[in-house]
Amino acid sequence: MTEAQKLQVEIQKKAMDKLAPLFNRYSMSVDYLEPALKWKSMVLILGNFSSGKSTLINEIFDTEIQRTGQSPTDDSFTVLTAPEKGAEPREIPGSSLINDERLPFTSFKKYGEQFAAHFSMKQFNSPQLEDMAIIDSPGMLDAVSEKDRGYNYNGVIGDLARLADLVVLMFDPHKAGTIREVYETIRNTLPGNSGEDRLIFVMSRIDECDSPADLVRSYGALCWNLSQMTGRKDIPRIFLTYSPNLSSSPESMAAWTTERAELKEKILGAPKMRVNHILQHIDKQAHELRMVIEALASFSLLGRQLLRRTGRLALITALFVFLFLDVIIREFTGLPETTLISSLLSGTTGWANLLIPSLGGVGVLTLFALFFSRFQFSRLKEKAVAHPEELIELDTEYRRQLWKQVAPHIEFMLKKAGSREIFAGHHSTLRKIDRFIEGDLQDYYQKTS
Ligand SMILES: Nc1nc2c(ncn2[C@@H]2O[C@H](COP(=O)(O)OP(=O)(O)O)[C@@H](O)[C@H]2O)c(=O)[nH]1
Ligand SMILES: [Mg+2]
User: Fold this and answer.
1) Distance of CA 114 from the midpoint of ligand 2 (Å)
2) Helix and strand counts by DSSP (H, E) for the chain
3) Position 159 pLDDT exceeds 80
4) How many C-beta neighbours within 10 Å does residue 425 have?
5) Is the beta carbon of 52 within 6 A of some atom in ligand 1?
6) Sequence-separated (6 or more) residues with CB below 8 Å from residue 22
7) How far is residue 250's CA from residue 376's CA, in Å, rounded to a whole number?
8) Which residue among 241, 309, 314, 431 has the highest number of C-beta atoms inside a 10 angstrom radius?
9) Do 434 and 301 contact (CB within 8 A), yes or no?
């Protein structure tokens, strides 16, 4: 094992030890925490069909493993990687991949058989693929034909992007505008500001532009589309590439040869980014969990404040009833002969004198307890479910983003909360997760920097 792999295993263990119990306690699925820590580095290649995805892959690994062609030749997600040491290369169908606990794909079962039938692994011997896998994907379609796929394509690529250390979005010069939805799906799954280093844009097949003017126009159109999608004013780096083997006039393309090389280098460099991405991923999951706990902690605090107010009133009322109930009853019925107060004054208090006061006092406390749990707590809960955002401060953009991810879960947790929830000790859990985020996680960041 390399140093980086050792560190990965250590981080994995630490994160699972410390976070998994908390995830369970707050009914959050470790589905998203666990898979990303498993297995090897992955690069996901996305793009329109015939944008040159498969050609690029074949070229990088110097094989003809993927079929290429002008018409949509391939409608499957294919994980390309090397076999385990000493094993023969095999092809493994999707149905086996999604059931293999050692691989990070078990959560893909939810996409159904249609997806499994369009998912597979192809192994072949290549030193670079020993610590990485590259995923070739079926071309993106427009929204209408997307419905005919039979599985949730955007869901799949969102989940794959979450696992990947690098997502390559490929366009060809003449179809640069149809990927907004795909971009948004990916963006929403990547942690924080990691878009910069995890998502790269490629305009391929530039040798097919008729002239430099044609290329510049296409590039301009792509930039415009990207800025519309990303909402940013700066233009991300776009690799302008072509396949030297396919170009009909290699001489005229001389200026662009380094782009292809840089793109390959970037793809093959993905494993180096792995540990850092794992940390970012854990960081994001931990902050999501923290926000859920924060909301519940603040809800339970409101609950305790309310209970304190009601409790005070209940005690005062119970005391009053304890002292004066028998006096009032005596006023109307003539019984009991001696009230508690008069027995206290004459120093002759016996068990009989305590009977009515105690029953009265306990009765009052019971009524208040019912009032709190049936009425007040339910009202508090309804209010919280209607406006969960009031439970926490959403003062930064980062927190507002996190909020979007966890709001549905917070609502779910609030809805199922019983009145005992207010004593659930969320604050101490909050301190636990803070110790993890500020302590362990920062240590690991330091180790990798
Ligand atoms: N001229 C030229 N043709 C290319 C280039 N890249 C791919 N092609 C061709 O475009 C077609 C589609 O490529 P393919 O890799 O199958 O695209 P995919 O659908 O994105 O996997 C194939 O016929 C390739 O030979 C390139 O850079 N230049
Ligand atoms: Mg292909």
Assistant:
1) 19
2) 18, 8
3) yes
4) 9
5) yes
6) 289, 293, 429, 432, 433
7) 77
8) 241
9) no
Which ligand 1 atom lies nearest to the CA of residue 243? 27
**Cβ atoms of 59 and 243 closer than 8 Å:** yes
For the stretch 221-236, pLDDT in tens is 888 877 777 776 777 7
DSSP, res 374: I
Mean pLDDT for 303-313 is 96
Ligand 1 neighbourhood includes 138 CB (under 6 angstroms)? no
**Does the Cβ of 247 fall within 6 Å of ligand 1?**
yes
pTM surpassing 0.90?
Answer: no
What spacing in Å lies between the alpha carbon of 202 and ligand 2's midpoint? Answer: 15
Contact indicator for 164, 271 with CB cutoff of 8 Å: no
Closest residue (by CA) to atom 19 of ligand 1? 50
Which numbered ligand comes closest to the C-alpha of 49? 1
Is the model's pLDDT at 194 over the cut of 60? no
| Exposure string for 238-267, b = 16+ CB within 10 A, e = fewer | bbbbbbeeebeeeeebeebeebbeebbebb
**CA dist., res. 6 & res. 11, Å (int):** 9
Q: Are 372 and 419 in contact (CB under 8 A)?
A: yes
**68 in ligand 1 pocket by Cβ < 6 Å?**
yes
What's the full length of the chain, in residues? 449
pLDDT, residue 145, reads 67
What the chain holds in terms of domains, given with CATH numbers, is 41-268 (3.40.50.300), 288-448 (no CATH)
